Amino acid sequence: MSFRLSIKGSVHFSLLFTRFDMLTDKFLRLQSIFFRLLGLELLDELDDESHRYPRRSIYCILSVASFLPLTIAFGLQNIQNVDKLTDSLCSVLVDLLALCKIAFFLWLYKDFRFLIQQFHKMLQRENQWLVGDRIISIENNRDQFISALYSYCFVTAGLSACLMSPLSMLVSYHRTGQLQPDLPFPSLYPWKNNNIFNYSLSYLWNVSAALGVALPTVCVDTLFCSLSHNLCALFRIAREKMMHFKARSPKETRENLAHIFKLYEECLELGCSLNGYFRPLIFAQFVAASLHLCVLCYQLSAHLLEPAMLFYFAFTAAIIGQVSIYCICGSSVNTESQLFCQAIYESNWLHLLQENSQLVRSLKIAMMRSRRGCPIDGYFFVANRETLVMIVRSAISYVTLLRSLA
Description:
By secondary structure, this protein is mostly helical. The protein is built from twelve helices and no strands. It has one domain.
């Protein structure tokens, strides 16, 4: 008999370990790779405080910060040329937003890691329930797909910009027989790029700045995508437990409801922390995206039949995807938190009217709180689908103004 119990215990322990191992494979899998390239760890314990500002992160900051004055100088030199001015403005917005994201993340590095550990503990606890494991798997698979698609789109835009210049130089040399220097991003240098050494130095500077922009941007954006998806999973788990809770005695009823309400409260606290950390970034993202899409739409209309249209099209898709991550994920978190009210209504609450009126009052209070939801906002902008449509419409309407100035 004891031998059978030991076998059952070992099997149960192995199943729990397998589920925990599956959770570590799903949770922040792609994001951990990107942050390691940036020189940061998300899940592993770091005892050395010197790892807070690693060399790779400093390299990204310096590469973008040193390239930014060159782009600003190019825009000031061509302030009368709307085409070149909007091109430089596009590059400036990307650089400033990337610097804002990496600097803010490094500033709150400990806070972000603590938030990730809180998510991991709750997911590890709820992953032991079969329904919870299925919900977590679905949300993380969706997150990994969206994050990978967004990463490929953003990296493709950067690669197309870096490769377009050498290709255009080869095409120009084939047509005219002269090699004209062409660089990926608008910038003004203190030297001339006519000889091969100066051009190589300028080109490497452009590629370095592109890498310094792409890596931190992808890291921070996909991190928000993953945390919001897992928060939706926790809200769905609380809703499933509410809809299917069983009570054989009044004591068991109170314990089950206390556990469910505690889980929902923890989810709301995680959502509040997530919103608090990302609120400045969401605000900066929405402001920059409105101007960015306006400039990119103008560039698309100006280079409609030129090879550069492919780059601007890829860049526009990347920016729309960037805004969509915050808007759609924020809308999903708020919707999932509000559906807890519907779960209470669909639960087995009729017998509670006869057993305990205080529990019914608790259900009413929980329904009133869940109607408020868990909104994700950027101070003046609520991250939802309506805001996404508003940003795109505003950007398109601004194109008419730029076309009149050209």
